[in-house]
Specification:
elongated, 199 residues, two-stranded antiparallel ribbon, alpha+beta, 40% helix
Length: 199
């Protein structure tokens, strides 16, 4: 009688062991076979991607600004990091704001400090229209050299850094002005002039 019990128990253990092996195989097949890919795709489709800028620093762009020096009449390059994008006009406005803010290396800003960039528009043909506040004309006594430097500091900064900009028109308070200080004709578009830049 005891022998029969042992045989019955052995059969039960064998059956349970066999079922456990089958179950284990089915689990392995499910997670590593073709249905596993469906599960993965389902999970991927329902978990939103984290935002690209989540907590990250905003993209930056290094620009070259053009300042005057005390000992010559040339423009001198100085690099500055600005926030990039979203448009060329936005970046150009930031670059000119840095030009007005002044040099970090002891050069002289050719634009009066109270000057503000009111707006920049860049057309598809490469013409950038820059509108400055009235301080660019009223807050500074320009000689012919300093006026030329002010104009070309703006023009060279924009064309040098932004390939979309080919020529620059300067406005004051939204209107065309003949000159800033009586020397340089502002009624035309300016091409860059790097001959004024120190080598």
């Amino acid at each position: 009688m005891e022998g029969k019990k042992k045989i019955a128990l052995s059969r039960h253990a064998l059956i349970l062991g066999g079922l456990a092996v089958v179950l284990l195989v089915l689990i392995i097949v499910f997670f590593t076979g073709g249905t596993g890919e469906k599960v993965k795709r389902f999970i991927d489709a329902n978990v939103p991607n984290p935002p690209e800028s989540g907590g990250a620093e905003p993209a930056s762009k290094t620009v070259t600004l053009f300042f005057l020096a005390d000992d010559d009449d040339l423009l001198h390059k100085e690099t500055r990091v600005i926030t990039a994008g979203p448009t060329v006009a936005d970046e150009a406005e930031r670059a000119l704001a840095e030009l007005i803010r002044g040099s970090e290396k002891g050069f002289v800003s050719p634009l009066p400090p109270p000057t503000k960039v009111r707006q920049i528009f860049v057309a598809n043909n490469g013409l950038a229209t820059v509108d400055f506040s009235r301080e660019i004309a009223e807050g500074f006594a320009y000689g012919s050299t300093s006026e030329l430097a002010a104009v070309y500091a703006v023009v060279d900064t924009l064309v040098f850094n932004f390939p979309a900009v080919k020529r620059v028109v300067i406005l004051v308070e939204g209107v065309e002005k003949e000159t800033l200080g009586g020397h340089v004709d502002l009624t035309r578009a300016f091409l860059p002039d790097y001959s004024l830049v120190a080598k």
